[in-house]
Amino acid sequence: RAQPLPFEVDELPDEELDADELWDQRERQYKKRSAAEDARKLIPVKVKTPGPIAIAFVGDIHIDNPGCNLPLLREHTKIIAETDGMFAVAVGDLQDAWVGRLARLWAQQGISGKQAYLLAKKWIEEISPKLLAIIWGNHDAWAVGVNDVAPLEWVASQAGVLHERDGIRLALNLPGGQSYTINARHDFRGRSQYNPAHGLTKANMFGWADDIMVAGHTHETGHTARKNPMTGRVAHMIRCASYKYIDNYAKSEGFPDGNITECPVAIIDPACADKRHSITIDYNPARAAAVLKMLRAEWKRKSQ
Q1: Of 158, 208, 206, which is closest to residue 185 (Cα–Cα)?
Q2: Which of 16, 158, 31, 156 is nearest to 95 (CA)?
Q3: What is the mean pLDDT of residues 44-50?
Q4: φ/ψ of residue 281, rounded to 5
Q5: How many CA atoms within 13 Å lie on the side-chain side of 114?
Q6: pTM, full prediction
């Protein structure tokens, strides 16, 4: 028979939550996460500019790559900034951000990672008054630190620019009551040798009924328009090419040059009599700006 101990020790409190406390904590976490998820299913954007507008979709920039066509990027940025009613969405890969086995490529960049960050930061800050959203690309994701901190995410938040890691759906609510949806991702699943916009078209046919669907990633241009026979609305599926004009990887793999436009522009004319044509896609940002100015001038004349 065990003898009683000649001393006593008080029972120490457990640092872990008990089952009831843990259940309540996880339930609160789920509710908070669910609310955040629901809010991102379709993000309303109240457009304050009446009349026709345009959305320029900025393809993969790779701003720290020596093959990036910075003069063209500067030109397009200036057009977007100075054109009344023109806005922009960046579809990802703002930088190379080489990591892992690809980190050896920094030797060919002629620039450091810190300098690359400064270039991307400068571009975001310059275009931020017109930039509706930034979508991360796979290269942008590579820049995330071990503590899950992304430098460009911080820059975007400081500039007041909406940014998402995986994709984004926007509802452009115009002053006249019309609404158009944009579904932007760095890429949509699905490939076809016959149609660079195949993945987007497949997504539109089997689920997403958005007015504009846009992606980048493959550095080639694709555009498909499809009418929904149930609603009568015409959807535009657009793949943007890249500002990375000189691409050693594309050369080594023998990829053909499929860049028709790195910055397609969707011109939205809510007053268009034929609703099938309320959205038109122009591959030339300068021409799109000229057309938009003409449409807005006509709209203002009729509105007086």
Answers
A1: 208
A2: 156
A3: 96
A4: -110, 125
A5: 0
A6: 0.92
